[in-house]
Amino acid sequence: MRRVIPILALVAIALQLVSSEPAADSRLKGAYRKPDSNGWIYVHLEGKPAEAGFQHGWLLATENEDLYKVTVLNSTHDSDKDWKFFRNVAEKILWPHIEQEYREELQGITDGVRARGVKLDLWDVVAVNASIELGYYVSWYDKQRGLKPPPSATAPDRCSAFVATGSYTKDGRVVIAHNNWSGYLEGARWNIVFDIVPARGQRFLMDGMPGFIHSGDDFGVNAAGIVITETTITQFSGFDPNGIPEFVRARKAMQYSESIDDFARIMKEGNNGGYANNWLVADRKTNEIASLELGLKNVNLWRTKDGYYAGANFPVDEKLAREETAFDLKDSGLSANARRARWRTLLAESRGKIDVAAGRRFLADHYDTHARKEEPNERTLCGHIDLSPRGSKPWQPEYGAGGTVQSKVADAAMAEEMSFIAAMGHPCGLHFKAADHLKRHPQFEWMKPLLRDLDSRPWTVFRASR
After folding, report:
1. CATH of the domain spanning 26-463, picked from 3.60.60.30, 3.40.50.1970, 3.30.70.100, 3.40.50.1820
2. pTM higher than the cut 0.85
3. What is the pLDDT of residue 391?
């Protein structure tokens, strides 16, 4: 005879089961992750620093662990340093100069990933955040000890970008665009769109990598109408271990800038020379744009309401180039110089016609000004260093498997609604296939366990969710 369980007993059992489930963590309130879109992962974070950090770690725990493995592999491969060295730098050199707000957020990320079973600690998280500028530290550290820094410690080419306004744009308002040049190893992971509503400062929308409290390639827009991007100053050297980490200043500028003056002040304060960039900034409220060339010894700020600034890793100021880089401004065959020439031509020819569509077209450009022909390589705005007949240069070995990994464009109207358009992979439509690349270039076999395909994906609009 079948036993019948009374309804009240069933209800009691159900309540008991529910009560035995762990309660939802209150720190996750308001946070969410959207389904992946054309290679991008969109996450919304909000609240106090520790809360937003916990949300970040929790929602992107798997991605945090994956990027950690990539960072360890990249950092230790040819630096003659083990991961313990970089963790020590994070704790002893960087942490003392990180303000409390960002300490709490970094600890929150650590707590979030650990709550999901990922065994990272605070110094791992800080070192991953500082991974770009740690090369500058290694160069300084080795020179202080009379050692020759490894090639990977020298600032490489990273990115092509422009910002334009006034008579150069179709509607007379701001247009800004950027493509990210990186090794494909880490570049395939540069696929997060962060929508962050902090307890203090401005809401902002930016691209980035899992675990980063900053963008890293620095493209974003905030609610005060400030739009930011940058390109690296090639072959730069210089580092101040007593300065504020670049990743902290970049995040603070994204969060707290309400004007170009604010941005310049925040970036210059405590400048440690790490990840030295030519920053391109726009204020969509005033249609003013600026270029902040931020070396360690030389700092230059130019601004206009009618014109453009372009970045392609070249030093703009000759004094900065002479005193802080090993870059040859006269060699037209160098990637940065060739791309600088291409920007001048494209932006001059497009005066009065520049809009989002034009920005997308520019970022996919394959014209080599030195060879005077169409050929995707390390001298074109859409970078394909892996396709270059010249191979990678001694001072950028990681780019034997790299180039453009993603792109973003925005205009004033998009910035007004906190949005931008972005594309993962090469914006020109060419795909990167890891197996094919390793077959052609077996010297990069060390990347094999973590190197991924990077297909060219469609352009996708992202906006801060309401």
Report:
1. 3.60.60.30
2. yes
3. 66
